[in-house]
Amino acid sequence: MSSKNKQSKQIQDKKAQVLGGGKGGSSKGLAVMVVVAVLALGGGLSWWLMSPGQAEAPLPASAAVVGGEQVVALPAALFNDGKARHFELKGADGITVRYFVIKSSDGVIRAAYDACDVCWPEGKGYYQQGDDMVCANCGKRFPSVKVNEVKGGCNPAPLQRRVENGKVIIRTADIAAGKRYFDFPRKG
User: Fold this and answer.
1) How far apart are CA 131 and CA 80, in angstroms?
2) Which of 178, 172, 159 is nearest to 95 (CA)?
3) Ordered domains of the chain (ranges, CATH)
4) Does residue 49 sit in helix, strand or coil?
5) What is the per-residue pLDDT across 36-51, written as a single tens digit (0 to 9) for each?
6) What's the rounded Cα separation, in Å, for the pair 88 and 85?
7) CA-closest candidate to residue 133, choices 118, 113, 117
8) Residue 127 pairs with which residues in a beta bridge?
9) Would you say 76 and 109 are in contact if contact means Cβ atoms under 8 Å apart?
10) Cβ-contact 84, 120 below 8 angstroms
């Protein structure tokens, strides 16, 4: 048998082992399929059980230096679908500040803390429903075009941002300035 045929035979044997080929099938292959099905079902069930505001976990934000400033730079194209994306940035003091960015129905990319002046102690933030951001604590709705425009009350607290060269730029100092909304009393 040539070395090429030998390699081909070895590859076919490995495929048969992995895919459960051969007579009588493979109990390993069946076990793997059962585990995958259970994990998929469990993941879907846990997503379904979560509240609307918690269905998508915040993405960690990483800082970079742009123009001599510590910033978070996000691709502006990420927001073209009009869906709010939630992010978080952990400060040196251990406080994690959550915020969201959305391209509103008028085409403007907007940013706000995932908190407000009223409901922040509950730590629930906002979720998107259609063109509105909804307070997960009190249920008040805020049109996307008002995010970063109206402040105070239960409105999402505005967060300064700018769009340059196809990136949404947010200064990490501006993000950290909102830590008061996320400095929850330690329970213990």
Assistant:
1) 13
2) 178
3) 3-49 (no CATH), 54-181 (2.102.10.10)
4) helix
5) 333 333 333 333 333 3
6) 10
7) 113
8) 134
9) yes
10) no
Inter-residue contact 64 to 72 (CB < 8 Å): yes
Q: What's the one-letter identity of residue 88?
A: E
Segment 61-116, tens digit of pLDDT: 556 666 677 899 999 999 999 999 999 998 888 899 999 999 999 999 999 999 98
The rounded radius of gyration (Å) of the Cα atoms in the chain is: 24
Q: How far is CA 37 from CA 40, 42, 50, 51, 63, in A?
A: 5, 8, 20, 24, 38
Phi first, then psi: what are they for 66, rounded to 5°?
Answer: -130, 120
Is the pLDDT at 12 greater than 80? The verdict is no
Average pLDDT over residues 145-162: 91
